[in-house]
Amino acid sequence: MQSKTQPVGKIILLCVFLISLSLFSYQVTLTRLYSAILFYHYVFLTTSFAILGVGIGSVIAYRNRVKLMRAIEVDPLRPNSLMMLVKKLTFALSCGFICVFFLIYIQPYIDQLFVFITLGLIPFVISGYLFSTLYCVWSKVSGKLYFADLVGAGAGSILIILLLDHLGMFRTIILICLLPLIVAAVLPCNSKKVRAFQYIAPIILAAVIFLPSHTVSKIETNFHALLSNNGKTYGDMQKSGLDPDIVFSRWDSFARTDLIKLGTIPQ
Questions:
Q1: Is 33 a member of any domain?
Q2: Residues 71-109: pLDDT tens digits?
Q3: Which residues have CB under 8 Å from 21's CB, separation 6+?
Q4: Is 107:37 a contact under the CB 8 Å cutoff?
Q5: Between 228 and which of 37, 68, 108, 219 could a Cys-Cys bridge form, CB atoms 3.0 to 4.6 Å apart?
Q6: 3-class DSSP assignment, residue 260
Q7: Residues 164/253, Cβ–Cβ less than 8 Å
């Protein structure tokens, strides 16, 4: 089977690189979001549990390995077998990124740690299943896969700092969600409808990046989980009746910085 699957090896390495890059960027971005609404020791706890998701996804893939290998052995190069599975998983990973970031942004603060742990877990479970599947099928070139994985994570550790510092939180999140869709777009597919969708979805996300600056600023400022958290500065001021108003907000690779204007201070 290895000789038959060799021609698509470069595509698989590219997929592993991009997925690893997006996953590492997601992890760093998640810590920045959580650090704005949670205390630092809870941030470490939630991200540690999130990484556990990779192990959970790997266990699921291991339990399904026999069924997976049988399906692929029928025709290894057929897009509806291995390639279609990878395409579906990368699309699911992108959806997972979008759902996690969206829910964190729009929901009011919930004083339940397991909610944040569960949210952060979702993309890691998907990626764990995907990586384990690739390592199972491409076991003879596992060294190359691991190298692509490490290079992707290393590139992500540098890229995410640059993105957060120069593009802010919102545009960085969109780019992270876009990366798995690029993987899905480069994989072969016989279905015209699927091909059309796999090109349309990245174009839509890419267009969102170019929203006007004032719109992006409003989206980043209205971080509901932060604004409704009485344990943080803005929520505490609001609870105290100080009528705070955020006149300037900026996200970077270090933290979120807010300039808060106070209304009438009660005597």
A1: yes
A2: 665 554 444 567 778 888 898 999 899 999 988 888 888
A3: 152, 153, 155, 156, 159, 179
A4: no
A5: 108
A6: strand
A7: yes
